[in-house]
Each structure stands twice: as structure tokens, then as C-alpha cells.
Write a structure and sequence with these properties.
α3 crosses α12, α6 runs antiparallel to α8 and α8 runs antiparallel to α11. This protein is 50% helix and 16% strand. By secondary structure, the chain is an alpha/beta fold. The chain folds into five domains: 155 residues, Orthogonal Bundle (MutS, DNA mismatch repair protein, Chain A, domain 3), CATH 1.10.1420.10; 86 residues; 217 residues, P-loop containing nucleotide triphosphate hydrolases (Rossmann fold, 3-Layer(aba) Sandwich), CATH 3.40.50.300; 64 residues, Roll (SH3 type barrels), CATH 2.30.30.30; 76 residues, Ribosomal Protein S8, Chain: A, domain 1 (2-Layer Sandwich). The protein starts with a helix and ends with a strand. It has a six-stranded mixed β-sheet with strand order 10-11-12-8-13-14, with helices on both faces. Strands 18-17-16-15-19 form a five-stranded antiparallel β-sheet, with no helix packed on it.
Amino acid sequence: MQEKGLHVLEFHKIRQQLMNHAASSLGKEKAGALLPANDLEEADRWQQETFEAADILRLRGHAPFGGLTDIRASLKRAKIGGVLSAQECMSTAGVLYAGRQMKQFILDLVEDEVLEIPYSEEKALMIEALTDLEKKINQCVDDNGEILDHASDLLRSLRQQLRTLESRVRQKLESIIRSSSAQKMLSDAIITIRNDRFVIPVKQEYRSSYGGIVHDQSSSGATLFIEPQAVVDLNNSLQQARVKEKQEIERILRELSEAIAAQADIILNNTDVLGALDFMFTKARYAKSIKASRPVLNDKGYMNMVKARHPLLDPDEVVANDILLGDAFSTIVITGPNTGGKTVTLKTIGLCTLMAQSGLQVPAAEGCEMSVFDSVYADIGDEQSIEQSLSTFSSHMVNIVDILKKANNRSLVLFDELGAGTDPQEGAALAISILDEVYGRGATVVATTHYPELKAYGYNRDGVVNASVEFNVETLSPTYRLLIGVPGRSNAFEISRRLGLSEHVIEYARSNMNAESNEVDTMIASLEESKKAAEAEANEAEQFRKDAEALHKELQKQIQEFNEQRDRLFEEAEKKAAERLEEAKNEAEEVIRHLRKLQKEQHASVKEHELIDAKKRLEEAQPVFAKSASQKKKEKPKADHTLKPGDEVKVLSFGQKGILLEKSGGKEWHVQIGILKMKVKESDLQYMSRPKPVTEKPLATIKGKDYHVSLELDLRGERFENAISRVEKYLDDAVLAGYPRVSIIHGKGTGVLRKGVQELLQNHRSVKNTRFGEAGEGGSGVTIVELK
């Protein structure tokens, strides 16, 4: 790749932005040295690596690079026998930690099968965890790069000795500076250090009062820093201990350096792999910052850039353009006046190509296609210059001559203001000749020019298309939208009219133009309008297509969910039916066994209430399935009985039994359901039974199913013992009466009666379930009992 082309297109600015997203100096180094690949396979592999890193960041939000630094120089020094510092050892442990964390991070993603990341997995498997070495370094060096006391037994002992000696020196000096004479003889009552020895600041005139050694003096000479004779020996002992400590630290560092040197090649490999991974995630973070997407690469010279933006401009302000090149045409000639954005378009194409070949995602919409070229040549000058000198023209020609020598069918060539800086007629002729030459070589070409002669160039040659940058005459400013297939036209007359130039002056000027020029401008204006209308219709059609596709997907999803739910409900229904049938079978067998047992024990003399109880259990053993709403509506009351007050009925809509109180109107009854009285339509009632009238009081009575037992028991005002006794008797009566559910009214009160009733119900053999009443049933003052 030509370095000059990279510089002209400002690829170095892309690299600089990329470096800002690196997690370590290793990633920054690779970002700063990034160059485009000219091989499709290599460029595609780089793109895949960036895509994998972007996927990981999207899923996890980060990648663990904590502790990663560039330790390659330290490793090389360790390999040749050098002793590393504590800080270098700590950095080595940090790299080992970073490698271990990153390897686990990537392999966990692979194991969870949440992403397909073959390149990341390949790199992770290249990292070798050296846990023992990492642990050994961490046992000796702390996070600040200091050797820890427990790095060795000798070091611990020496540091304990140092602390003891230092304490003794300080105690001795503090006794000196706290003495009565110290205030007069000392410049300040402090202990300081000079030449690694503890000293005190003594006034010049009292230097002989303390004896000892003078280590330093103040700038004025009025104060001497003296080590008193009383602490000289202690300071000597302290110095000796420090020397031994230093020797022990050097020994420990030498031992660590040797251990690192033994694994230097592995650590160096880990460092390189981590640097490559950091660079991958650097590219992914950069892509996110410029709202880029992965391009599809080819080596056929075909480019289809969808909503492409200049990567160095603010993504929220730059105008996005669709650029198609290399299919029906391999050369684009962008014509039109200056300040319209032609050079920005040129650089967008060049930079996006370089980025795609460098493994960087491009600032464009999904589905963007880019080609890989062997070289990208660019001759881009300052299009904003009002005057161009001959020297400028000469410098451009030098570049163009060099390009013509090297360009081939694997080249992308970008010309800005081709032929400018000389006589317009000669420049236009030269531009056409150069374009023909490069086109004949098979190169992909994009050129900008403001020469009107080149407007017809695209119409006279196959494989060449005209383009222009749209200009808004209303606002007198360019819109920066690229119009492929529409040559640029002069807007001088429209701009002059908007600025207030007289109409007759404009018309006179127009009459001075030849008819051919007027026809060309009219044709261009018509093309612009047609293209805008076609784009609007295409966008509307695309939106309709997307809406229809989204609706189709949503309907498919709903149908699938409906089928899944239907199958699930069928399975649940079959399971519940099987369970209920099994329960019924077991209950029936239990009743039969019980009757046989009674028959054997009582010699076929089975009492009436036992038969009733067995019959009730058999009835309850029959599985009951919940009816649908439509089935409930179809249920009708028995037609062979005329309802009367006192009849026991079933309210179909609630599935509850009640007692008829009186008729209300033509088709409604007042019904007592538990503690509730409500008005119910006759069509919602089903006759159950009528209590038999009592003719005379028998000596003994068996209360069976036909005996009327109230659906509620009111215990309010009862003593606790009587209430509990009544509950037990009432439950037996209710079971014999065949009630599935009854209500016990105990009131709220102090809660003693309610608690006693609840405890009794929990342990009663006939109780299946209990609950407090709903708001309309009496709340916590009523307990609803569900009987077996």
C-alpha cells in the first residue's frame, strides 16, 4: 500500500483515533502501526476478529484486560541474567493474571455456546496459565511494587529488628528534644533524617552541647543537623540491619528473576497474544464509537456503500450517502461547483476502503460491500483554493505521472479537481485523456472536476457514470447528498435570482449562452427531479416491504405460540385427567377394603351411617372436571320439579349449594348461600333436594344426606369449650349431609375463638382445606371449610 496515499487520505488520523480505545500500550502499539492488507483472505480474517470482539462487547459489555502492560523488555533482560526490580516482577504477575482471566473469560463464552468466536478461542488456547509463578510473585511483592515482609523468614526477622531499633532511636531522641534545655538549644523540637540517619536540628552556638556527628546544616548556617553521641551506636546498628535487608531483598528479586527467566518464552507468547486480543477489542470499541458496521469484502472491485459517512466527521452531523461502484460502471466523475462536498465524498470512499482492508468496520449501514485493492492512489489537493499557481499544477502532475506508472486492474485511483490549475480547455482535455488511460488499465476510478466539458464524458463511454453533489438553491448551500447518474450543473442563475439580481439581466445572460448549454442544464435539472422522485418512491416501497415482512414474522410468531400453548394445554389436561382417574381408582379400592373389613369384624352387620359414609366416599371418588363457560351456560335446572321456599338448590354460576328463601318477581329467587343472601335468576338454579318434614321425634335418628343441615354455623357469643364441641358435631353433620363446603362464623373479637377453630379444623379428619372469607363473605370473621 502506497504510504503517500495513506497520508493524503489522512489514514494516520484514523490510527490516532483507534489508539485512544486501546486498553494497554500493547494495543496502542498495534493500532499505531496498522496498515491495510491487500489480500482478501487476510482482510476478511481481520474483519471476523473485529466482529467477534464487537459481539463479545455487545453481550458482556467489557473484556478483562486488568494488569496487562508491556513487559517484553523486562523479559529479555531476565533471559540474559538480569535482576528485575520489584515493580517489574509485579508487572509480570499482572500479565500472568490478565492472561489467566482473559483465557477463562473467552472459554466460558465458548462453553456456554452463546457465541461462535473461533478466532478468539484460538488465541485464548494459546495462552498458558502459569499459576504457580504468579502466586510466587504475589507472595513476595505487593500491589505497590514493594517486597513483603513474609517474602522470606530472614526478611521478616530483619524488618522486625529494624522496627525495634528505629523505635529505640526515636525514643532516645524524643527524650532529648523534650528536655528542659532543648527549647533553647534546638531550632525546632523535631526528629529528622539526614544520610539515612536520625538527627535533630541544633542551633550553631550549641553544637558542642550534644556531641556526636554533624551530618548537614541549613542554608543560613544557623542550624546544624547533629546525630547525638547517645544514638550513634543505635544508628550504626540500624544501618547494618538496613544493609542486610537490602541484601535479602536483592536475593529474593534474583530468585524471582530466575523463575521468570525460566518461563520467559511462555510469558512473552502470552504477552503477544494478549496484545493481539487487546487490538481486536480496540477495533471493536472504535467501531462502536463511530457507529460502524462490518462490510462484506470481495476482490472484484465492487463497492456498494449504504449510507456511508466520512469517519473523521461528527457522525451526528455528517450527511450519509449511498455509493455504488464496480458493477455497471467502474469510473465515477463527480462534477459541479466548489464547496459542494465532492472532496469529502472522495475521501469517504478512500478511507472506508482503507479501513475495510485494515480489519476496521466502516461507518455505514449494515450490508455494506467493499472491495480489496492492492493499492489505493490519491491525488487530492486543496479544493478551497481560489487561485492555483503553476507550481501547484506541476506538483499534481508529478503525482499523476507516478500513479499512471503503477496503476493496474487491482488499484483504486482517486483524483480531486483533475486538470485544475491550468487553462480550462487544456485542463479538460488533459483530464479526459488521463481518465481514459486509467480506465484502460482496468483501475477503479473516482474523480472530481468542475469542468463542464466532463459532463458529457459519462454519456460517451461505457463503464463511466456522472455524479454530482446536490445544491439547495433555496438556502444557497450544498446538501452534501451524492446524486449518481446526474451530472453537476451551474447554479449561477438561480443563486443570482435568489440574491436579488434583476430578471432581465439574468435572461440577457441566458440568451448569451448557446442553445446546447441551455439544453444540457435543462436535461440535468430534469434528471435531478426524476431521481428525487424515484428515490422517494423506492424508499416508500422499501418501507412497505419492511412493514409487510415485520407483520408476516409477527403472525408466524403468534401462530407458533398458539400451537405451542394448545399442545401444552392438551398435555396438562391429559395429565390431570390421568391423575384424577388414578385418585378415584385408589379411593374406590380403599372404600371396598374398608367395607370388607367392617363385614369381617362385625359379621355383615354394617350400620346405616357407615354405609352412607362409604357411599359418599364413592361418590366423591368419581373425578370431576371443570366445565367451560359454554358448558355452564348449557346446564339447566331440573324441569320435573317446581321450586319452592326451603328447597336446597345449586347455583350453577357459582357452583355452590343454597336454600331458597322466597321468590322475587317472576323469574328470580332470594337464595341463602352460607352467610350470603343474594338474588339469583331461576334459570341459574338447579333443584337438589327438599328437607323432609319431622312428624314425631324418634328415639334415635341417623342424619343422612336428606337431613337438612345449615350451610353455616354461627358461634358468636359462645363460650370457647361449647363452641369447639359445636364445631365437631356440625362437621360430622355436614359430612353426612354431603356438603362440599360450609361456613363457620366465629367473628373477629380477640381472636381466641378464631385460633381455636383454625387449630381444630387443621387436624380434623373430614376437612380438606380451609380459608378465611372474602370481603363479601365476612372477611377474617368467617372460615370457609372445604370438606372431603
